[in-house]
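Need fresh eyes. Consider my entry:
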Amino acid sequence: MRGRVGVARIVMPGGCGAGDARRGRSDRFGSVRSGGEAVYGGPVPLRGLVMDLGGVLTDGPEVLELVRRARAAGCPTALVSDAHAVSDELAALFDVLVLGPALGVRKPDPEVFRRTAGLLGLGVDECVVVDDLAVNVRGAREAGAVVVHHVDPERTVDEVEVLLGLT
């Protein structure tokens, strides 16, 4: 069942961030009962990862590994970049590629983040967007996403792990 703001109860299936739920731990969204049943009264759980290429994925292998781990945990992943092409190896890390003006809008327009989330089958409020440029961070935030302003790989990995429950 997809989470929505105002929903009183969400049963978390396996997947992105479900490890804490299976262990009966509490998370930032509310109390989690043993067996994976979560009771929410607040924000929508974060389930998708939207990454920038230049300045983020090019900043070290630990950021690429973060994408691999998120996808392995069941998080839908997207790459949003002004680049017109990426390597097959990089493309294989993502469920969705949004390159250049493919959606008719480009960063920092908030609509590119909304449309990308839709391609992932998620609401933008269910996505973590990672970008290194403040203007793109503002656009993603305006769209309704949770954002991580990439400054260095270690900090980005730490923040995304917490937000998506990958730790």
